[in-house]
Design a protein that fits this description.
This protein is of the alpha+beta class and about 150 residues long. The protein has helices at about 1-15, 100-125, 130-145, and strands spanning about 35-40, 45, 55-65, 70-75.
Length: about 150
């Protein structure tokens, strides 16, 4: 019994590297509004100070033109206020996920599951226990830890 507890403690010590790390800010950074200024030479710059006399303040919303370039909207305008928004793609749209990316993600998660269970089986074999029984215990334990959001899947 002591060996089993020692092996499980060892496995949990190594498994902590897979755990989800969470950070909590203790101090909130000071936030300042940014001004998107278009200077007289046509250059846009984000700055903390208000726009100077030689520049005009624009919104940070960019509208895509049909030729692929983008222009900033005037301050106070939204995407719905401009006339050409019906023909332009949504600049906030999420990129499409290919089938290859989905397969790679699935394969990685299966490899994590089987690797976790394989480690359980190897350690069980080292202490003269059944490899397959502990292999399946490792699978069940991994599923439980993932469902409790202790491990990333």
């Amino acid at each position: 019994m002591k060996r089993t507890v020692a092996v499980l403690a060892l496995l949990f010590a190594f498994e902590s590297s897979y755990a989800i790390q969470e950070l909590t800010l203790t101090d909130v950074p000071p936030l300042q509004p940014l001004h998107n200024c278009k200077h007289s030479d046509g250059h846009f710059a984000m700055q903390r100070d208000p726009c100077g006399s030689d520049s005009i303040e624009f919104s940070s919303i960019m509208q895509r033109n049909p030729d692929g370039t983008g222009t900033y909207l005037p301050l106070g305008a939204t995407m719905n206020d401009t006339p050409n928004t019906a023909n332009t793609p949504n600049p906030v749209a999420k990129p499409e996920v290919s089938d290859k990316d989905v397969m790679e993600t699935g394969q990685k998660s299966w490899l994590k599951l089987l690797g976790f269970a394989f480690i359980f089986g190897i350690v069980a074999k080292l202490i003269s226990r059944s490899f397959w029984r502990w292999f399946f215990v490792g699978i069940v334990l991994h599923i439980i830890l993932v469902s409790l959001n202790i491990l990333s899947f």
